[in-house]
Design brief:
There is one protein chain. This protein has 389 residues and is an all-alpha fold. The protein has a 3-stranded antiparallel beta sheet. Strand 1 and strand 2 form a beta hairpin. It is elongated, with a radius of gyration of 32 Å. It starts with a helix and ends with a helix. This is DUF6545 domain-containing protein. It holds the Pfam family DUF6545. Keywords: Membrane, Transmembrane, Transmembrane helix.
Length: 389
């Protein structure tokens, strides 16, 4: 079940690479896109050739014993080589020096094939068995694979991690961190072959197929890398959904403050029967405006001397520094509502009045803090009001 799920995830990731190629064909150099395509094709094919279904299709004989096993390792090396070339091409453009690592990749693949051939593997059930004469070459084959893969993946991990760390928050940074996860998973997937080396040295045999953990790590690798590389295609839709959820949460979190102001100044409510008709973002925007309208309607009832007293009282009451400003706002607003009910007016306006903010998100974040202080008014705000009075 887990193995099948891993293969389906690999298929989804491979489809993602295809979509990315179609999307970016007009904005990226053809060479760069071929590198990305090469990575996706190699990594997906390397998983396919090692599946039980492929072994059953090939049947007993040299194809299953030699071709599939060697092809799986060679395709993994090719995928890593394409990934390094793609990274260098994106970061350094047409001036990227691709030849050194390409020669490193080619030489490793040739040496790997020679070592594999000299090891003379034999398939016995689900294991690959080596003779005493072929065992040193089999160990050399695995050592070459690990050496090349871990060096190259370590280089990729360092590049992506450094870039993600310094990138500005946004889709680019999220995509880079997904690539970091993918490369880290690939590193773990490759390092898992150390267990094969240990088994090979002790018993002169290794499992001929990928185990479940290897399949899962492979799926995480291709899924994360595909997601990171194609983030520009699907991130707007995800960001839109997240934005609506955040707006709805903010809409509900400032409701206690809005309810108190609507009760004190009923005229601020605009068509209350259609609260979410325009979507969560518009409803939040409208609720922020209504709160500010209520604040303006109570302007004449704000005590200009209360904020300073409330701030000092809040600190004496042990209010955290980060919550002092919101607590003072809640205290002065509660006092203004009471003054409005009693008909008390003040000739002088407060020295610092909260002004409208063009950024609805920032304004809503501030009102959430005030609303949080408002909800605690029985235990905290009333205490501060008493100390300030």
């Amino acid at each position: 079940m887990i193995e099948s799920l891993a293969y389906y995830l690999c298929l989804a990731g491979f489809a993602g690479f295809g979509y990315k190629l179609i999307e970016a064909r007009g904005s990226q150099p053809p060479r760069t896109m071929w590198f990305l395509a090469g990575f996706g094709i190699c990594i997906a094919t390397s998983i396919v050739v090692l599946t039980p279904a492929m072994s059953a299709l090939a049947g007993p004989g040299p194809v299953a014993e030699w071709v599939l096993s060697l092809a799986g390792d060679e395709l993994k090396l090719g995928a890593i080589g394409f990934a390094v070339a793609f990274t260098q091409s994106v970061w350094r453009g047409e001036g990227a020096r691709l030849a050194p690592h390409a020669l490193f990749t080619g030489a490793t693949m040739v040496l790997l094939a020679v070592s594999f051939a000299l090891s003379a593997p034999r398939r016995v059930g689900d294991d690959t068995v080596f003779s005493g004469a072929g065992l040193p070459f089999a160990l050399a084959d695995k050592a070459l694979f690990l050496l090349y893969s871990l060096i190259s993946l370590g280089l990729l991990f360092a590049v992506f991690a450094r870039s993600a760390w310094h990138a500005e928050p946004g889709p680019l940074r999220a995509g880079l961190w997904l690539l970091v996860v993918g490369v880290g998973s690939a590193f773990a997937w490759t390092f898992w072959d150390v267990d094969d080396v240990r088994s090979l040295a002790q018993t002169a045999r290794i499992a001929a197929r990928e185990d479940v953990l290897s399949s899962v790590l492979a799926a995480v690798t291709i899924g994360s890398v595909a997601a990171g590389a194609t983030l520009s295609a699907w991130s707007p839709a995800v960001a839109s959904v997240i934005g609506r959820v955040r707006a709805y949460r903010a809409y509900r979190r400032i409701e206690p403050l809005w309810t108190a102001l609507r009760t004190a100044v009923p005229g601020i409510a605009l068509d209350p029967g259609r609260a979410l008709a325009g979507g969560a973002e518009f409803a939040l925007y409208r609720r922020v405006i209504e709160i500010r309208d209520g604040h303006l309607a109570l302007r004449a009832h704000f005590d200009p001397d209360l904020p300073a007293r409330a701030e000092a009282a809040a600190r004496r009451a042990g209010v955290r520094e980060a919550e002092v400003a919101a607590t003072v706002e809640a205290v002065t607003l509660a006092a203004a509502i009471e003054a409005g009910r009693a008909g008390r007016r003040f000739d002088r306006a407060p020295a610092h009045e909260p002004g409208p903010d063009a950024d609805v998100t920032a304004e809503a974040a501030w009102l959430i803090q005030v609303s949080r202080a408002w909800r605690r008014r029985d235990a905290l705000v009333e205490k501060v009001k008493a100390a300030a009075g």
